[in-house]
Amino acid sequence: RSGEMAKLTQLIDNEVFRAYATYATIVLLKMMLMSLITAYFRITRKAFVNPEDTASFGKGENAKKYLRTDPCVERVRRGHLNDLENIVPFLGIGLLYALSGPELSTALLHFRIFTGARIAHTFAYLIPLPQPGRGLSWAVAYAVTISMAYKVLKTALYL
Question: In three state form, how does the secondary structure of the chain look?
Fold first, then answer.
């Protein structure tokens, strides 16, 4: 068991892995924030999807009027779903990339561009900013993940 712990310690000492952990944490916190923003909009717009969520607004027909969709809530939810579709692959591919031995400067460039693009995407979704802002920020982050995946495949499979 002590050998396993030594390996974990070596991993934590790896600068690229620490950079990955830093930026993975940032995008995960950003994604968690989207849940809070969704809850905020649900409460302030009184737009709920579950009957039990309307209990504090009355019973029966009075509470049913709060079982509805709201465009602002749906916009935040779509942004959150887009995070799930893009950040989850980044977490897996980014980890493999970090373990594939890239140069620190190259890894930082990948991680920073991805994180910046996802933050920009969130602002573009929530404000909303005119297109192509949201589309470009999505494409940049997606391209970064593809770039890391290519490096992993090239390193591991000698493509």
Answer: CHHHHHHHHHHHHCHHHHHHHHHHHHHHHHHHHHHHHHHHHHHHHCCECCHHHHHHHCCCHHHHCCECCCHHHHHHHHHHHHHHHHHHHHHHHHHHHHHCCCCHHHHHHHHHHHHHHHHHHHHHHHCCCCCCHHHHHHHHHHHHHHHHHHHHHHHHHCC
CA-to-CA distance for 110 and 100, rounded, in angstroms? 14
Which pTM was predicted?
A: 0.88
Sequence-ordered list of residues with C-beta below 8 angstroms from that of 70, at least 6 positions apart, any chain: 41, 42, 45, 47
* pLDDT tens-digit readout, 123-159: 999 999 999 999 999 999 999 999 999 999 998 876 6
User: Of the candidates 125, 137, 136, which has an alpha carbon nearest to the alpha carbon of residue 41?
Assistant: 125
Quick one: which of 23, 33, 26 has its CA closest to 95?
23
Q: What is the dihedral of CA 141, 147, 148, 154, to 10 degrees?
A: 170
Which domains are assigned to the chain? 15-43+70-157 (1.20.120.550)
